[in-house]
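Possible regression after last week's pipeline update?

I re-ran a chain I had predicted before the update to compare outputs. Posting the input and the new output here so someone can diff against the archived version. Not blocking, just want to make sure nothing changed silently.
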Amino acid sequence: MTPPPPPAAEALLPPPPAAAGALPGGGGDAALPTLSPLRRVRARGAIRGRIALLGPAFVASVAYVDPGNFATNISAGAKFGYLLVWVIVMANLMAMLVQYLSAKAGLASGRNLPELCRESFPRATNFGLWIQAEIVAISTDLAEFVGAAIGLHLLFGIGLFPAGLITAVVAFAILALEQRGYRRFELAIAGLLGLVGLGFLYDFVVVGHHSAAGIAGGLLPGLHGSESLLLAIGIIGATVMPHVVYLHSALTQRRIEPRDDGERRELLRFIRIDCGLGLGMAGIINLAMLCIAVAIFNRTGNTGVDSIEGAHHGLSTLVGGGAALAFAVALLASGLSSSSVGTYAGQVVMQGFIRRSIPLFVRRAVTMTPALVVLALGLPTTATLVISQVVLSFGIPFALVPLILVTRRADLMGTLVNRCATTVAASLIAAVIIALNVFLIYDTLLG
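New output (post-update):
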């Protein structure tokens, strides 16, 4: 008998169906209680009914603009100009397909990806997948906590270690919104994502001096040595995040339960729109980060800028305090939102793979410890962020390959089973990432 999901998972489930008179604009129509959950949502109106179906991809996309992205994108733009634009675009397109498949798995099966893995693979395999997923969770927390701590330090002058502790407290406050329903949590995370986007939109406009020809030239694949390869893999690791591959399926598995295959296909159309909007926004933010670094560092000969603090100082010196403030606010919003999402993802992983859950406080204490050690010892923060993203890149195949295997099975996916072309495209993505990782090991050890 499968135990109930942990409190964090239950909190994201939609509330029980409301009475007819409680619906917006409802007048006690006796027929409304017979409507399916999807029809009740659509009954809110042409605009509200559609907006209410969006949200999970925006929660997932927060992980695609976490502080690890700041580190990799700034380093790439400062050192190599527009050379790695193609990596950002490719990684974002990969992310759209991967997150779409994850969301589809939750919708079609009513189970999240770790649960599907537990049902589909031997016990030893699942234990191994769980162990590597926990390592990924620690690497994720490392980037998110360090990034938020740097944001607090830049804004208020707080020491990095106390800032890390403050980040933990605020992350718990955001997670508490789960107890009030999935929609409030989604809106809070989307609001923080909006802050990140506004911060970089402001900086992009204020900095100026962007080259459309340079960006277009950067779309042609190319690398300059092993350092650019390391950054390319770090960008992919910071974009296609393993923990949100697991999480997205949990966000859709019981969010709005379809009554039949027709409603599943209708919800799937909105999942495509959700992924396009949420992850498209994340991709634009990542590209803006790189372009800003090119404009203020690479073009001025400051190619050695490889730290978030250095980028903030450069913005303040070369552009002005407003640009630096927008950058720091975006960094803080990124760290706080992504750390909350990461904690929930960890609960989904543990409950799904091994049918166990632990209190959120204990999980947060375990996964944030390495980040606090980095802050307490004063280790190079940006270098640590880049390495953490490379670790995440190594974890991607362990999430992506099982996702491909389960979404190609008609017995699990029903009418939403992958088409052959979809499976081939996802398999090519997994093959590219695995090949990059193997080449990085070869170049590091034997190059």
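Follow-up from reviewer: compared with the archived run. Residues 162 and 299 are 36 Å apart (CA to CA). Marking as no regression found.
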